[in-house]
Structure formats: C-alpha cells, structure tokens
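Q: Could you fold this chain for me?
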Amino acid sequence: MQHVVIVIHLMLVLSLIGVVLLQKSEGGGLGIGGGGGGGFMSSRGTANLLTRATAVLAGLFFATSLILSILAGMTRKPTSILTGAPSGPSAPGPASPIDSSGILKQLQGAPSAPPAAPAAPSGPQVPPSK
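A: Sure. Below is the predicted structure, expressed as structure tokens.
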C-alpha cells in the first residue's frame, strides 16, 4: 500500500513541477503564454487552466503527504527513552565476510581470536614523535 502511495506521490511531484514551470511569470520566465489567437489556449485561458491545475495538484500532493505520514506512523512501535537499551543483541547477525575476528565479534559478545603479531618492517621506519 505504501509503495503505491509513494509512486502516486512522485508522479504528483513531477506534474506539479511541470505545471509550475509552464506558468508565465511577470518577467517572462519559462512560460509558454504568448502569441496570437483566441479560444481555449489563449493567454487568459492558459493562465486559468494552469492555476486550477496547480491548485488541484497541490491539494493532491498535500493529501498524499498526509497519507504517507499516517502509514509511516502505523508501523512504528512506541518506545520509551527512560528505559535502558537491551544489554545484548536479541538475535546474532550473520558473520561479516570481511572481518571475521574483529570488533564486530567483540560487540556481539563472541570470543575473538588473539591478534596476530605485527609483521617485521621491511624497510627503514620513521621514529615515532613524542
């Protein structure tokens, strides 16, 4: 359900951007209004149509925003910041293929392998600063 509303919301966003860019601003801007001829797509007719379309799209955008926020709130579980966090993970996660004996294992509570001895330097070393 939430995915459908998100897709509709994104289509409304793109339509609203397009309708706003089509409107003729006072300075000319990106508007298409102009030219001769009367009737449905005259300068006045275009302004009325685009204004109404903008209002309708803005209302639908507002409605889908509210629906998305309500849907997001329904899946959230209430928690308290006053109670402490659990001391350990509830379910151990899969082992990381990158680092199987590093800090991840220590954080999960598993005993880690002893660290390997540092390799002998292969060349001249810079003395450590104090």
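A (continued): The chain has a mean pLDDT of 75.
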